[in-house]
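Title: Request for sanity check on ABM domain-containing protein prediction

Description:
We are preparing a figure and want to confirm that the structure record we downloaded matches what your pipeline produces today. Could someone re-run it with the sequence below and paste the raw structure tokens into this thread? We only need the token string, no images.
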Amino acid sequence: MEKAGIAQRIRDEKGNERYDYFQSLNDAETILLIDSWRDQAALDAHHASPMMDELAALREKYDLHMKVERYVTDEQGMPAGDQKFIRK
């Protein structure tokens, strides 16, 4: 993704706010992708782009399997009880 420039092209897409990979310290075969978009419309446009065919080809080539978890920004903000655990 990085070597082929695909990751940067995704980062450059309109509405992309973050596209970063992280490797597990416990399992070198596990990679976490944080993929953040301005809104659902931006994500839908990304999913409709020809780039998705390139991603699918890489998944097939390297026999990659995915588990997806979706997180949504908490519009209420962090509760006061949780803030005491955050060091700023």
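Thanks, this matches our download. The beta strands are 16-23, 31-37.
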